[in-house]
């Protein structure tokens, strides 16, 4: 955790505008512990938190203090978040809503865009927060198509794969690592900014 926050601090030294959201599980925050983590995250320059294993009913140890310190507390909605559950998910959510586009493990299958659109519209009917869609998003075409439905697109596994493919046999970065990863991110970002041009699946 300390190394992660050091990375945030180092990034903030050169960029004080790009939002940074820390995403993970509650246990590392709990053992840090909570008060120290919030103080250090704010001091490092973090803007928000996604704590994937902390449901609304169990967030009293973290969310109020994080919100009071100015950290957005971002929640996840999924394909199984029904109409009865959605209000609880959206309550006290700030920053944006992260819609998990598939049920299962990230990176294992592609999202069904017609289903994504229906769920995003359902969420938008109950909140004015921006919606970011993630899980299973790998290609420029997928990014472009989703960008026409939501305000943000989350890509994780495809970037991890790009890193892994560029490493040497010992798992170290090579000359190909930086251009391969940055090239992918630039193409995906372009698809996000120009969705009409990229939305070919």
Give an account of the 3D structure.
The protein is of the alpha/beta class and 201 residues long. The protein folds into two domains: 1-73; 74-201, Aldolase class I (TIM Barrel, Alpha-Beta Barrel). The chain has helices spanning 2-14, 26-31, 34-44, 63-68, 86-90, 113-124, 140-147, 157-166, 177-193, 195-198; strands spanning 21-24, 48-51, 72-73, 76-77, 97-100, 131-134, 152-153. It has a four-stranded parallel beta sheet with strand order 4-5-6-7. The longest helix is centred in the last third of the chain and has 17 residues, at 177-193. The model has no long low-confidence stretch (mean pLDDT 93).
Class derived from helix and strand content: alpha/beta
The number of helical elements comes to 10
CATH topology of the largest domain: TIM Barrel
Provide the CATH top-level class of the largest domain: Alpha Beta
N-to-C series of helices and strands: HEHHEHEEHEHEHEHHH
Give the helix proportion (percent range).
Answer: 40-55%
Most strands sheet? 4 strands, parallel
């Amino acid at each position: 955790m300390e190394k992660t926050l050091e990375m945030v601090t180092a990034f903030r030294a050169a960029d004080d505008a790009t939002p940074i959201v820390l995403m993970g599980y509650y246990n590392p925050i709990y053992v840090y512990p909570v008060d120290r983590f919030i103080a250090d995250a704010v001091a490092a320059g973090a803007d928000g938190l996604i704590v994937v294993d902390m449901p609304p009913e169990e967030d009293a140890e973290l969310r109020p203090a994080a919100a009071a310190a100015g950290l957005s507390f971002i929640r996840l909605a999924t394909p199984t978040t029904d109409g009865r559950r959605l209000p609880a998910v959206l309550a006290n959510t700030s920053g944006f809503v992260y819609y998990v586009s598939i049920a299962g493990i990230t990176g294992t299958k592609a999202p069904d865009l017609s289903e994504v659109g229906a769920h995003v519209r359902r969420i938008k009917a109950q909140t004015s927060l921006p919606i970011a869609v993630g899980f299973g998003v790998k290609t420029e075409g997928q990014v472009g198509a989703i960008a026409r439905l939501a305000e943000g697109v989350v890509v994780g596994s495809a970037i991890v794969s790009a890193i892994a493919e560029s490493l040497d046999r010992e798992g170290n970065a090579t000359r190909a690592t930086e251009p391969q990863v940055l090239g992918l991110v630039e193409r995906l970002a372009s698809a996000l900014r120009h969705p009409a041009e990229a939305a070919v699946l």
